[in-house]
Design goal:
The protein is mainly α. It contains seven helices and no strands. Helix 6 packs antiparallel against helix 7. The protein starts with a helix and ends with a helix. It is a multi-pass membrane protein.
């Protein structure tokens, strides 16, 4: 089980460019394919990961690892998802100033940006289909979108407000 967790999260860590939210699509597919937890439980883990300190990718790896393999699973999954990024950033830092101004590197970065947006949108769509289960949840979703897009409300306040709304309305 621990080797399976390490392999899955190492692969996810290798191919999840763009930060923690980009990992959600990959992670959801792995969790569903391997039967590690239900989609509803996965969405709950995202909410908890968003609410706790630290990067969402590490938090999700820790929670999924713990769910499937206890404390050893949490440690293995967390290390495995972080290891590719640490290795890549070490190499990248060594070469950054030498290669950054080159056209090919600039072109690759411009190509990666829209792909990351697509990955985040796909994860939002997949998660939204499970999380937005009625008109109340849809209202909370729309309110959060408007508050963050129009008034730049801090995600901290959105999480707290949404939790309070959930307690009061559900």
């Amino acid at each position: 089980m621990l080797l399976e967790l390490f392999h899955a999260f190492f692969v996810i860590g290798c191919f999840s460019f763009g930060g923690g939210y980009a990992i959600l699509s990959f992670l959801q597919q792995e969790v569903e394919r391997r039967g590690w937890m239900t989609t509803e439980r996965f969405v709950d883990m995202i909410a908890i990961s968003q609410s706790t300190p630290g990067p969402i990718a590490i938090n999700m790896a820790t929670f999924v690892g713990y769910e499937t393999g206890g404390i050893p699973g949490a440690l293995v999954a967390s290390l495995a998802v972080a290891l590719p990024g640490m290795m890549l950033m070490t190499c990248f830092a060594l070469c950054f100033f030498h290669f950054y101004e080159r056209r090919g590197v600039q072109a690759a970065m411009k190509g990666l940006r829209p792909a990351v947006v697509g990955l985040i949108a796909a994860a939002a769509w997949q998660i939204g289909r499970v999380a937005v289960v009625n008109w109340v949840a849809a209202g909370i979703t729309v309110a959060a979108l408007v508050l963050i897009a129009k008034w730049k409300v801090s995600p901290v306040w959105l999480v707290i407000g949404s939790a309070i709304a959930g307690i009061l309305l559900f």
